[in-house]
Amino acid sequence: MGATARTPRRSRTRAAEKTMMTATSAPAENIQTEHIQKSQLEKSVSWTGRERLRCLWYRLRLTVQEMNYAARRIVELQMRLP
């Protein structure tokens, strides 16, 4: 088997740095800060196409499982109501 080609690392842009600086300056915007850090982490690591697909498929499966669980719980709760 041959080696798989990986995409090169991307450097941070000035816009991303500005966004990060404004997000970290306001403590009430923790969610935005986490999102920025997550996106920067995703950009710093290079993945193969197969790895990306596997990750997306896993996230989709988790989302569907959560939706099924929520739907089941709602039906259970509605059946208990008089």
Describe the structure.
The protein has 82 residues and is mainly α. It folds into two domains: 11-45; 48-82. The protein is 72% helix and 0% strand. It contains three helices and no strands. Helix 1 (14-25) runs antiparallel to helix 2. The longest helix is centred in the C-terminal third of the chain and has 32 residues, at 49-80. It is elongated. The model has no long low-confidence stretch (mean pLDDT 78).
Q: Give the total of domains.
A: 2
Helix content: over 70%
| Total strands | 0
Topology pattern, helix = H, strand = E: HHH
Overall residue-averaged pLDDT value: 78
The stretches of 5 or more residues where confidence is low (pLDDT under 50) are none
- Rounded Rg: 20 Å
Q: Sheet bearing the most strands, described? A: none
Q: What is the first-to-last residue Cα distance? A: 64 Å
Short description:
The chain is mainly alpha-helical. The chain has helices at residues 14-25, 30-44, 49-80.
Question: How does the SSE layout of this entry go?
Answer:
Blueprint: H1 14-25, H2 30-44, H3 49-80
Helix pairs in contact: 1-2
Could you list some keywords that capture this structure?
0% strand, 2 domains, 82 residues, mainly alpha, 72% helix, single chain
